[in-house]
Amino acid sequence: MSVSTDPQPRIKREHLMWGAAAVLVVVLGVGLAALIAQRRVDNKEKAQLLGQQESGGAVVSVGPLDGTDINQYTQERQAALAKATGERAAVISVDHYITEAEARSLAGQLHVAALLAAPPGGAPSVVTGDMAAWAQAQKASASDQRDQTAELLKNGVDDPDYKAFYQQEVARLNKVLAGIDPNGKVVFGMVVTGSALDLQAIAKHPGVRLVDVAPSAKVNSQTEYRGLRPEQVLIFKQNDPRPF
């Protein structure tokens, strides 16, 4: 019985083994890269869901994004507050509309950088200046919209559905104008800076719904702020008007 001494089968087997190993390395590498990429995406999506974003060391935004589940968001942000240390910026949301004076009294020694306000029937806005100036701007905008809509009715609208809609808009905007009061209960939140200890303390005050801490106190004029409004209890919707 003869035994083959041809080295070619052994060499071929080695080539096959090395080839299989190379394929395995490529597959594992691709899988690992995909896993890392997915984790980065997941972390980015989680950060975006929470609305806490930083860029170049400065806070870009604080607050939930549209479509965020409010209960889940509240729980996660309460946990973040409990772990916070040092100086932080934060958005404080209250569970009912209050006046500017009430908001500043509630803030105590915390520095108030801005107020979050919405008149009945109006959209929310961030007020960094005087509330009287804010009210004047709100009235000017609502008056302009009302006058433009009234002009459409004056020029004649053939479609009865459109006519009814424009009439309702004029009535709604008149109602919005009547509710714009810089001294009224239009404030639903505050943007503040202070120590984590002070922020944790104010979270326990009656009427405080959420103290949403930023990653740091490094905010600027470009930072965006979003607060929870009293009427929103399930899903956050930034641009929905406040009910009358």
What does this structure look like?
- With 244 residues, the protein is of the alpha+beta class.
- It has one domain (51-225).
- It is built from six helices and eight strands, in the order αββαβαββααβαββ.
- It has helices at 8-50, 70-83, 100-107, 131-154, 160-179, 196-202, and strands at residues 53-55, 58-62, 87-98, 111-117, 125-127, 187-195, 208-213, 224-225.
- The protein has a five-stranded antiparallel sheet with strand order 5-4-6-3-7. It has a three-stranded mixed sheet with strand order 1-2-8.
- Strand 4 and strand 5 (125-127) form a beta hairpin.
- Helix 4 (131-154) runs antiparallel to helix 5.
- The longest helix has 43 residues, at 8-50.
- It is elongated, with a radius of gyration of 29 Å.
Gist of the model:
The protein contains six helices and eight strands. The protein is of the alpha+beta class. Strand 1 and strand 2 form a beta hairpin.
